[in-house]
Write a structure and sequence with these properties.
Helix content is 71%, strand content 0%. By secondary structure, it is mainly α. It has 2 domains: 52 residues, Homeodomain-like (Arc Repressor Mutant, subunit A), CATH 1.10.10.60; 133 residues, Orthogonal Bundle (Tetracycline Repressor, domain 2), CATH 1.10.357. The longest helix is centred in the middle third of the chain and has 27 residues.
Length: 203
């Protein structure tokens, strides 16, 4: 890699780091390019040498988060110590807890008036999780663990339902009675939609 290219990528990473911190502190909409440039130590005009807009930075942040989530999903799918039911449980837990991301990231995504990253992550993570979950459901059907049809559709329903309803947990701490009741209800939902008869989903 040429020195100036390496230097540009290093500066881009620094600007992304600064922008991510500002997004979490001020919100995406309330953070300006001028603020990002100033905190990064570059003039506003130079900012556009590295990025076209702050939306492009947001896409980089989203991409980084999705790569982290994909790594987590692959670890779950390839874990030979987990059976099919346990793998689905772990995938669903990741949806509920936003993939185990840093609490400050989750708090930013939960801001009611500034949830652009939240919505984007929810949509993209659903696209990421549906294929492996669909494959697990299909495998469960073949092994007669589940009694359902159209595994891809069922995987989409599970992902969207759990993702959307989990948004209401933003004011609830893990371990709270309401949180426990919610995860129990999700377990019952999985039980019903997959027709798992001999065991229960434990979240």
């Amino acid at each position: 890699m040429l020195p100036y290219v390496k230097m540009k990528k290093t500066r881009q990473k620094e600007i992304i780091r600064v922008a991510e911190k500002l997004f979490m502190t001020n919100g995406f909409e309330n953070t300006t390019v001028s603020q990002i440039a100033q905190e990064s130590g570059v003039v506003k005009g130079a900012f556009y040498y590295y990025f076209k807009s702050k939306d492009e930075i947001l896409n980089y942040i989203l991409e980084k988060m999705l790569v982290e989530m994909e790594d987590k999903v692959n670890v779950i799918i390839n874990d030979e110590n987990l059976n099919i039911k346990e793998k689905i449980e772990k995938l669903v837990k990741d949806i509920i807890n936003y993939g185990g991301f840093d609490k400050s990231v989750v708090e930013y995504m939960h801001k009611e008036n500034d949830n652009k990253l939240h919505k984007m992550l929810l949509e993209k993570s659903a696209e990421l999780i549906v294929p492996p979950m669909s494959a697990l459901i299909q495998e469960g059907i073949e092994q007669k663990i589940f009694d359902t049809k159209n595994p891809e559709l069922v995987a989409k329903i599970i992902t969207q339902f759990v993702g959307r309803t989990s948004e209401y947990l933003k004011y609830v701490e893990q371990g709270d009675v309401l949180y426990c009741n919610f995860t129990q209800a999700i377990g019952n939902f999985l039980q019903g939609i997959l027709s798992l008869k001999d065991e229960k989903f434990i979240l």
